[in-house]
């Protein structure tokens, strides 16, 4: 039996380390997914040794269509991990209400397909189908919108505790974070909401660092 475990991180660097630790512990890259906000434009396709896979340039303008879609706040592309490890398959896509994200893995492809196909519930619906509760899924989606990174892993039930201990390292307490959102006036994830920009993300991270909310 396989179980699905998801965690949210305030730092992409932390999430990246978690992915590496999961792979080092023996979990297949095909069973891991990462979705990270690119609101502050930290990721550049083809830079830092990372390249997009499955390049699509239907209008032949020299720019991957998914990058164009992300920059416009629309357009969804499915991204999967490569054989060199999950992070070798990073690519850019955009999700309504969240904006541009950098993603790889099975959940990224599932969420992208659900949103592109107009599935009921959009990205929140996709997260719920992937195993998150109806209470948690909107908080994860909002966390991504505000600059966070989500890592999801499919693990054998008998090894759950081992992999869960890795995923728990520096992860956000999702219940505390949801409560913090609600105290600030948030009532739920809204796909029509304006995506955060770099300044918004910086302020958000500073607030939680100051409050020592993890």
Descriptive terms for the model:
214 residues, alpha+beta, 5-stranded antiparallel β-sheet, 8 helices, 16% strand, globular
Number of strands: 5
Could you spell the SSE succession in H and E letters? EHEHEEHHHEHHH
Strand count, sense and barrel status of the largest sheet are: 5 strands, antiparallel
Radius of gyration: 16 Å
Helical residues, percent: 25-40%
Q: Looking at the structure, what is the overall shape?
A: globular
Percent range for β-strand residues:
15-25%
Distance between the amino and carboxyl termini? 31 Å
Strand order of the largest sheet: 1-5-2-4-3
The helix-and-strand class reads: alpha+beta
Describe the structure.
This protein is an alpha+beta fold and 214 residues long. The protein has helices at residues 12-24, 65-72, 106-116, 122-129, 136-145, 160-167, 174-183, 198-211; strands at residues 2-9, 32-37, 91-95, 99-105, 149-156. A five-stranded antiparallel beta sheet has the order 1-5-2-4-3, sandwiched between helices. Helix 4 packs across helix 5. It is globular and about 40 Å long. The chain starts with a strand and ends with a helix.
TL;DR?
The chain is an alpha+beta fold and 214 residues long. Helix content is 38%, strand content 16%.
Secondary structure topology:
Layout: E1 2-9, H1 12-24, E2 32-37, H2 65-72, E3 91-95, E4 99-105, H3 106-116, H4 122-129, H5 136-145, E5 149-156, H6 160-167, H7 174-183, H8 198-211
Antiparallel strand pairs: 1-5, 2-4, 2-5, 3-4
Helix pairs in contact: 3-4, 4-5, 5-7
């Amino acid at each position: 039996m396989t179980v699905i475990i998801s965690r949210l991180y305030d730092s992409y660097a932390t999430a990246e380390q978690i992915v590496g630790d999961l792979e080092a512990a023996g979990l297949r890259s095909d069973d891991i997914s990462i979705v990270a906000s690119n609101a502050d434009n930290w990721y550049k396709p083809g830079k830092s040794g990372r390249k997009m896979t499955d390049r699509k340039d239907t209008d032949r303008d020299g720019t991957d269509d998914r990058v164009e879609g992300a920059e416009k706040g629309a357009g969804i592309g499915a991204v999967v991990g490569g054989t060199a490890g999950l992070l070798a398959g990073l690519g850019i896509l955009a999700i309504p209400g969240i904006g541009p994200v950098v993603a790889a893995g099975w959940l990224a492809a599932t969420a992208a397909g659900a949103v592109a196909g107009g599935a009921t519930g959009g990205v929140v619906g996709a997260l719920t189908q992937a195993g998150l509760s109806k209470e948690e899924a909107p908080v994860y989606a909002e966390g991504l919108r505000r600059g966070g990174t989500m890592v999801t892993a499919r693990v054998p039930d008998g090894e759950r505790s081992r992999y869960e201990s890795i995923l728990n390292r520096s992860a956000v307490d999702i219940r505390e974070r949801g409560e913090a959102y609600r105290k600030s006036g948030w009532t739920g994830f809204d796909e029509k909401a304006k995506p955060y920009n770099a300044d918004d993300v910086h302020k958000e991270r500073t607030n939680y660092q100051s409050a020592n909310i993890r």
